[in-house]
Q: What sequence folds into this?
């Protein structure tokens, strides 16, 4: 006897992947139920509350991570559900000592990250959100396509760094994904112009909106570079440093997708106060309007049930706990199960894994025949170089970033080191230093006051500029998500992360610092660089930076922030591939081991390249929607 | 304790009126001054010294600028109690924020944030306040690029 399923498709997670998939399927008449762990409030009040409580990352006001969550279920200081990144303890210089696996050594090659991130040290500086809309509540808005060679890193370059890491090709090509990129750009609403033809980026459809104007400082930087190129020291090849407009999910046209045009609030993160920037609550609402999608919020999936006695080991249900809290903050939860014909996990690269590893299936856990579930955890480590330019840059105006340097994203150097993408900030020194608040405080502490202070503050704030470069790592199966021995307030195991920055990415960071210093040196007559970390041990990677380090004396005007920052791009934990022995899902993001289970999001990425992942996540979700639709109609 | 004294001291400490080429700010906002006076007096560890600070200022406010500057350095900035409070006043005006007593924080006030002098001196605007499409493509208004 078989009971009729509750719906056609069960989706876990209402972030960008889950909500776009729900909308697409719902609009085709497919009955969908979406489980969302966090709250689902998405109206103007929620937006205002978010802005009021967070302002921007550098705001001096006390951050209230639980602002939108009516209980402190997910947001204590010792778990991973916090919006505020964990406190940053002493961070090791890149390439320093090699005390592998010593959790108390902040300079180890990689740290074991327990739920007690402050005590153990934290190198995983990235977060995500558990609420309807997911991490798009705080994304920057960059909507950049991967490059054709990003899909075939191994077959094109086959890097073999000394730590033994190897690249892993995608089972699909750029051409396979290209139509879906166009569809994703249209439904997200991307403003852009193709500046990447020479990197092989072809387009079958135009951007739906013209590009967002570049900032004043972008144009000043482009003018100062004057056609200069970056010489890669691994290959002695030159790469032009062109400052080009960044495609972004931000309106340059009034009314597209019902959103207003960007009004330059200069506060894209955590959220655009007028929703000129796309966020996935748009697709949550679009999905609801189809009449075929039911969102069950505050519903935390904790176990996927599969039937090993049936062919293809189908998933037969998802167990979840629906939680509520009373006015005293007491949590109550009730047990539920939801069933469908097809199941989709779209709850982010960490939460997908947590759910799978908590789901026994015979002698293993669901979808883990390859033992790759949770492995290859990656982020894009970011080098931050910031400067006081000779001429004013006039930052703190407009979208946080409007331009980047794309040419350094691909080349034969990838045989030796990772690529990088340079994101040029319009936010002064907000990211690296917490300005515009830190500099005035430092000046006051130095004893300045009165007219002298006013002149100094103006002089410094108007000349601040920064470049953040996203570095490319390789897959490393030692960096992974596992289950912690600790449990959350619902009794569900917390995820535990083991993470580090591999040699390939370290070399990329080194090169990106050199390129950033080179650019700023064109904007400063007498550049003096202050390095806040040791050079890389790898001599090839440190040649150029050493040249600048020894080249001038005086008051520093170019600064390299210590270590690296997190990009918020969690990737690689259930990678796709053609071989079930070494990958978790196929090119349609379908589990190799379960005939009706799909895993969505950047967890599916087998390599990481340098592009912000949201657009590719959306394109893959749309492509998977077609595969699911086809499966349902078989 | 006089609001006028607090405003007078604040303007001298933060350098208002700004001199060219700085953007024009001729006076500080009395409403915001009342907010900062109340918040600092209530929440700052040095808040109990506010009366003494304003009385000291009152005694030197009518001095010529050079003598007033020297007196501020000697009687206020070098004082172990009045100096920290004066620096908190400066940071309050510049950033809308100042160090509070440990574990105690007033409710964030949008007026503090939007009235911070850093926005004016950066030739920018308070973040999260919408302006107009594309303004960031050129130098701030009134500045020759």
A:
């Amino acid at each position: 006897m078989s009971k009729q399923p509750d719906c056609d498709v069960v989706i876990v997670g209402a972030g960008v992947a889950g909500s776009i998939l729900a909308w697409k399927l719902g609009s085709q008449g497919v009955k969908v139920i979406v489980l969302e762990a966090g709250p689902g409030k998405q109206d103007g009040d929620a937006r205002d509350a978010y802005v009021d409580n967070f302002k921007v990352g550098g705001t001096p006001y006390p951050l209230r991570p639980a602002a939108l969550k009516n209980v402190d279920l997910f947001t204590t200081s010792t778990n991973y559900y916090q919006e505020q990144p964990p406190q940053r303890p002493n961070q090791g210089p890149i390439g320093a000592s090699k005390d592998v696996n010593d959790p108390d050594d902040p300079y180890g090659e990689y740290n074991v990250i327990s739920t007690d991130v402050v005590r153990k040290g934290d190198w995983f500086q990235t977060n995500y959100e558990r609420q309807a809309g997911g991490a798009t509540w705080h994304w920057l808005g960059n909507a950049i396509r991967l490059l054709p060679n990003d899909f075939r890193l191994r077959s094109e370059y086959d890097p073999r760094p000394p730590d033994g890491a190897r690249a892993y090709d995608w089972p699909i090509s750029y051409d396979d994904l290209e139509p879906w990129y166009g569809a994703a750009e249209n439904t997200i609403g991307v403003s852009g112009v193709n500046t990447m033809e020479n990197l092989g980026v072809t387009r079958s459809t135009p951007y739906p909106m013209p590009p967002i104007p570049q900032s004043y400082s972008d144009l000043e930087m482009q003018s100062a570079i004057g056609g200069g190129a970056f010489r890669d020291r691994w290959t002695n090849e030159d790469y032009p440093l062109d400052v080009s407009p960044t495609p972004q999910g931000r309106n340059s046209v009034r009314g597209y997708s019902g959103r207003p045009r960007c009004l330059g609030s200069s506060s894209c993160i955590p959220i655009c106060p007028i929703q000129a920037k796309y966020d996935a609550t748009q697709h949550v609402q679009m999905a609801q309007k189809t009449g075929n999608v039911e969102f069950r919020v505050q519903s935390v999936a904790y176990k996927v049930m599969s039937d090993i006695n049936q062919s293809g080991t189908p998933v037969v249900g998802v167990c979840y706990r629906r939680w509520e809290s009373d006015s005293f903050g007491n949590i109550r939860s009730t047990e539920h199960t939801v069933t469908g014909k097809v199941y989709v996990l779209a709850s982010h690269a960490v939460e997908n894994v947590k759910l799978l590893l908590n789901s026994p299936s015979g002698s293993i856990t669901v979808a883990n025949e390859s033992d790759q579930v949770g492995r290859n955890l990656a982020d894009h480590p970011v080098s931050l170089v910031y400067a006081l330019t000779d001429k004013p840059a006039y930052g703190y105006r407009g979208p946080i970033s409007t331009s980047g340097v794309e040419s350094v994203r691909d080349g034969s150097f990838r045989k030796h080191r990772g690529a990088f993408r340079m994101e040029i900030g319009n936010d002064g020194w907000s990211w690296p230093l917490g300005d515009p608040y830190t500099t005035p405080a430092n000046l006051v502490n130095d004893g300045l006051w009165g007219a002298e202070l006013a002149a100094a503050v103006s002089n410094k704030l108007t000349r601040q500029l920064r470049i953040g470069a996203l570095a490319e790592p390789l897959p490393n199966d030692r960096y992974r998500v596992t289950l912690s021995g600790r449990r959350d307030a619902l009794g569900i195991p917390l995820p535990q992360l083991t993470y580090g920055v591999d040699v390939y990415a370290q070399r990329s960071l080194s090169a990106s610092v050199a390129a950033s210093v080179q650019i700023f040196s064109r904007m400063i007559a007498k550049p003096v660089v202050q390095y806040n970390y040791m050079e890389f041990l790898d001599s090839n990677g440190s040649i150029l930076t050493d040249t600048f380090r020894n080249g001038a004396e005086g008051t520093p005007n170019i600064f390299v922030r210590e270590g690296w920052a997190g990009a918020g791009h969690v990737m690689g934990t259930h990678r796709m591939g053609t071989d079930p022995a070494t990958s978790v899902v196929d090119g349609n993001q379908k589990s190799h081991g379960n005939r009706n289970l799909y895993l969505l999001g950047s967890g599916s990425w087998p390599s990481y390249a340098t592009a912000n992942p949201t657009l590719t996540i959306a394109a893959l979700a749309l492509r998977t929607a077609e595969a699911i639709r086809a499966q349902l109609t078989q | 304790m006089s609001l006028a004294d607090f405003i007078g001291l604040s303007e001298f400490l933060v350098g208002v009126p700004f001199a060219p080429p700085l953007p024009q700010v001729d006076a500080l906002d009395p409403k915001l001054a009342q907010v900062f006076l109340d918040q600092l007096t209530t929440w700052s560890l040095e808040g109990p010294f506010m009366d003494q600070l304003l009385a000291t200022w009152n005694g030197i406010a009518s001095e010529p600028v050079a003598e007033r500057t020297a007196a501020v350095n000697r009687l206020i900035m070098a004082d172990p109690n009045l100096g920290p409070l004066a620096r908190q006043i400066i940071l309050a005006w510049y950033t809308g924020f100042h160090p509070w007593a440990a574990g105690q924080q007033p409710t964030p006030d949008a007026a503090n944030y939007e009235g911070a002098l850093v926005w004016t001196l950066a030739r920018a605007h308070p973040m999260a306040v919408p302006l107009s499409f594309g303004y960031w493509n050129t130098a701030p208004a009134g500045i020759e690029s």
In short: Chain A touches chain B through 51 residues (CB under 8 Å).
